[in-house]
Amino acid sequence: MPNMSTVKVGMPEQDAKVRVQNFEEVALGYSLEQAIEEAERCLNCKHKPCMKGCPVNVPIPEFITQVKEGNIEEAYRIITSENGLPAICGRVCPQESQCEGLCVRAKKGEPVGIGRLERFVADYQMAKGQKIDIDITKNGDKVAVVGAGPAGLSCAADLAKYGYEVTVFEALHTPGGVLMYGIPEFRLPKKLVEEEISNLKDLGVKIEKNVVVGRSITIDELIEEEGYKAVFVGTGAGLPRFMRIDGENLNGVYTANEFLTRSNLMKAYSFPKTPTPVKVGENVAVVGGGNVAMDAARTAQRLGAKNVYIVYRRSMEELPARAEEVEHAKEEGIIFKLLNNPTRIIGEEGKVVGMECIQMELGEPDDSGRRRPVPIEDSNFILDVDTVVIAIGQTPNPLIRQTTEGLDVTKWGGIIVTDETMETSIENVYAGGDVVTGAATVILAMGAGKTAAKAIYEKLNK
Which of 67, 126, 236, 317 has its CA 20 to 30 A from that of 78? Predict the structure, then answer.
């Protein structure tokens, strides 16, 4: 008999008062007994609606069935047949709007904790230290992947399984992309990312670090001089957007990209043990309502800020961040200043001393389907802050489009591809992830990488 509880098995967590003092992971994961109990909530639906919500097509009912029976190694083999980064996806995927959003159990309670189970299986197998052997027949052809983020890593893994010699070119000194520089340690421990990238290397994938494609070498040179049969571009969206208001050039204003990169990849959180400082004042305003804004706010608090505000121009209902991250932020004391929008950042002697905001109300829905925020006349007020972090989105770095003749891009700089194959306007050059869609989710980027890998394989084997 299935476990008919209408709620998920609870996930142990660090107490909020304790965790705001450290960067250790907030959620602690299931035990084997808890995982089996949660897996028994799965009805094993024949039509598998959950799979329709998974961008990388993980056989979800099949792996959950193995968890029910305690066959965790087999569950891991099933997951990794489609997803090479299960420990990561189990932690950061927006399951509530993807696989779990289509779970039948959600009609009368909470959906099955698919993400929690995926995380458990990956962690369990990682703790055992056992690798899954995969038979690969090399075909002798080389394919280049530009960018070692989720899209690039996913594409590289599948290409390696198809038998290609795959080299990933990464601009930074550490592979992982946004997984390493963007998501804080308390939400995604770096050792897990390193471990899952290690699994990728076991497939034969080479990673060349500190190579800036577009400067160190061009796309054309990779194909014409280095002999790569195809190139996949998964360079993400690392160019921050600004609000274009007065005061954005003041000391004390960061983009979320800079703030999180300093803290994560350059380990500014351990300054002066590490050489990279990051200034965090007593009162911090983070502008934006997505997961990046939540990450920046919770990081600022852990770095010593006394008051951290999320300033967002719409209401809680339109907040785009994951519900779990919002809940964790609330528990940790982050202050939500909703229906407010900055109009200028105020400075003295070149430093931030405040931020003027205006109150908003919601009007009719805009093109995004969300109700349009409208300023309320004469409602301006000053928020007393000394640090501002801008987290309103990113666009692709222009380097590759500027150095690759014939590459068609959108007005905002995204590379244009065909939906079915991810091929660009240049034959045998493919692209996927945030560099195509703009900033989105890890799992959508991975799905694009897998689509491109399959298309590359099918084209090169005609």
Answer: 236
